[in-house]
Write a structure and sequence with these properties.
This protein has 310 residues and is mainly β. Helix content is 11%, strand content 36%.
Length: 310
């Protein structure tokens, strides 16, 4: 279901399933492992370690409300190109199957894919993507209520995924939590990012907060120095309109844009995720791949930011 929300989550994935396979079988660059000595582990939040082989997983079905460090250990082999983890809250009384049917119906009516109203009624608490054999983590807040945790496994030669949903009951009261110090704050607004004036290379924690009305995500790609926001928008547009043969626009060609260095699952308003990155010096483009009610990707509406890491 959630693949419909993030169909542009990796720019490379728009070109062909062959490129998708090549990218997914490698560990994601720029994102630090989720081992015990990671920056996220050092924050001291309770850990939820999830192991999966691409057919089953062991995410707990009952938790106390709180801030958690979720670690996804992907034990799948090359038959599992990558695994997506998405945590969401459905409207009261709605089942995962009903929600999936709504998204499938909307996708079948495209292209373009205009998401159903349901997308803006759900609460997205974030998630991550792992390649086979990779372990990664992130931090999120789980408030009281019923949450749906979806792991989706994708094979190496197809974009069709196998969903493994589980309902998680979160009880108790949400405790007060302190944000880490020295982290990088990234704000998600409606069609805009709020970013620091300066980014430093090396290991770091990003705190990503959505204060917009719509769900948003982050796709971070490395781009040539001097790239402008308009060039990035035109580049994405070329992939959308001519996915088989991406066209160079204003000097920005497909081979100029590295595979996604970092990307998140959707976050709804007031949701917060913490991620650990290890960035090399260079120029990067942040954009949002989520679609608005008309089916237009937010990046095409100007939600893109060019930053320099020094």
């Amino acid at each position: 279901m959630h693949r419909c929300l993030s169909v542009f989550v990796l720019l490379a994935f728009l070109v062909s399933s062959t490129v998708l396979t090549a990218v997914a079988q490698e560990a994601t660059p720029g994102v630090s492992p989720a081992g015990g000595d990671s920056l996220l582990a050092g924050l001291g939040y309770p850990e939820i370690r999830v192991t999966t082989d691409g057919t089953t997983h062991d995410f707990p079905t009952a938790l106390e409300a709180g801030r958690y460090h979720v670690v996804l250990e992907n034990q799948g082999d090359r038959d599992v190109a990558y695994l997506e983890l998405l945590i969401e809250q459905l409207p009261e009384g709605m089942t995962f199957e009903e929600a999936k049917a709504a998204f499938d119906e909307a996708e079948a009516a495209g292209p373009p894919f205009a998401p159903p109203d349901l997308q803006f009624e759900m609460v997205y608490a974030g998630g991550l993507v792992t390649a086979a054999g990779e372990t990664k983590g992130f931090v999120l807040d789980l408030t009281p209520g019923e949450w749906t945790v979806i792991l989706t496994a994708y094979g190496p030669y197809t974009e069709a995924g196998t969903d493994m949903p589980v309902t998680v009951t979160v009880t108790g009261e949400m405790p007060e939590t302190e944000d880490p110090t020295g982290h990088v704050e990234i704000g998600l607004l409606d069609m805009d990012f709020v970013v620091p004036d300066r980014f430093e290379a090396g290991p770091q924690v990003w705190q990503v907060t959505n204060t917009g009305l719509q769900p948003h995500n982050i796709v971070l790609n490395r781009v040539p120095a001097g790239t402008t926001e308009d060039q990035m928008i035109e580049f994405v547009n070329s992939l959308i309109t001519e996915p088989a043969t991406p066209v160079s626009r204003d000097g920005l060609a497909y081979e100029d844009v590295d595979e996604a260095v970092f990307f998140t699952q959707p976050l709804s308003r007031e949701q917060v995720n913490l991620y650990e990155l290890d960035l090399e010096p260079g120029t990067y483009a942040l954009d949002c791949s989520i679609r608005d009610p008309s089916g237009t990707a937010h990046v095409m509406l100007g939600m893109v930011e060019i930053v320099t890491v020094e």
